[in-house]
Amino acid sequence: MLEQFDFEKYILDIPDYPEPGVVFKDITPLLADPRANATVIDTLSDHFLGKGVTKVLGAEARGFIIGAPVAYRLNAGFVPARKPGKLPRETLSITYDLEYGKDSLEIHKDSITKDDVVLIVDDVLATGGTASAKARLCKQIGAKVMGFACVLELDFLHGREKIKAVSDFEILSLAHAK
Question: Does the annotation count 82 as an active-site position?
Answer without folding.
Answer: no
